[in-house]
Amino acid sequence: MARRMVLRALGEAAHMTASRFIEFGVRSIAVATGLDHTTVGFHLRELRVEKNPLITLVEEARGTKGDFYMLTVPEELRTAAEDASWQKGKIHALRPVFRELGLPAAFVYEALEHSPVMVTADIVRVTRLSRSAVHEALEILAAWNLVDRDGGRAWSVVTTTSLSQLAEQFGVLEVVAAQVQRYRADRIIWREWLAKNVTTVAELLSPGEDYPWEMFEGPPDEWSLSDMAFRQLA
């Protein structure tokens, strides 16, 4: 599920930049997905070496720039992708409240957002989660009045409950802010290192070097998925 969320963060970035070429650091994606940046780096490496990868590494990170990726539709999935209908609504990575409620709850809630009412079997089919995971997610969402049964069997979203207010109640916004601040500090350290070693950066950052990439690589300067995370609380 974490790997799916990393892909969704890349899809969100592609949607907002109107390009299938993505250049974001692992820390930006970490803020958008609620994961640690080292976990994001691991999933990105695994995603790009799959048999039919959905992402292609175009260029390794250099200096203040993150890895440059291209979103790819494998040939085996091209026909199915072309036949798929586009769902209305925003493309979300992980909205802050689901850092507390969990990834299954995030997938289940979104499935219900895209349909007026759904029975459990349909939610299982759409989310591709196990039936037990869906049941547990529905119980969590119902406990916080985010979903409700419609007519006994079907489920629907409770639109009067605010995701942003719940996130604030859980203290998630402070956690996100702390993560952003920590990564900003990492970026300052990295830029200071670059300033002192500018003549040898190209050599030190070559792919073959044993260098702690993910420890220092920072988010983009202009805007990042961390900014998106704050704008998509509701």
The amount of beta strand, in percent, is 5-15%
Helix content: 55-70%
Number of strands: 5
The number of helical runs is: 13
What is the CATH topology assignment of the domain at 2-83? Arc Repressor Mutant, subunit A
Radius of gyration: 19 Å
Average pLDDT taken over every residue = 81
The side-by-side strand order for the widest beta sheet comes to: 1-3-2
Question: What is the CATH class of the domain at 2-83?
Answer: Mainly Alpha
Structural description of this entry:
The chain is mainly alpha-helical and 234 residues long. The protein has a domain at 2-83: Arc Repressor Mutant, subunit A, CATH 1.10.10.10. It contains 13 helices and 5 strands. It has a 3-stranded antiparallel sheet, with helices on one face. A two-stranded antiparallel sheet has the order 4-5. Strand 2 and strand 3 form a beta hairpin. Helix 2 packs parallel to helix 13 (225-231) and helix 6 crosses helix 7. The longest helix has 25 residues, at 172-196. It is globular and about 65 Å long. The relative contact order is 0.16.
Concise account of the structure shown:
With 234 residues, this protein is mainly alpha-helical. It has 13 helices and 5 strands. It has a domain at 2-83: Winged helix-like DNA-binding domain superfamily/Winged helix DNA-binding domain (Arc Repressor Mutant, subunit A, Orthogonal Bundle), CATH 1.10.10.
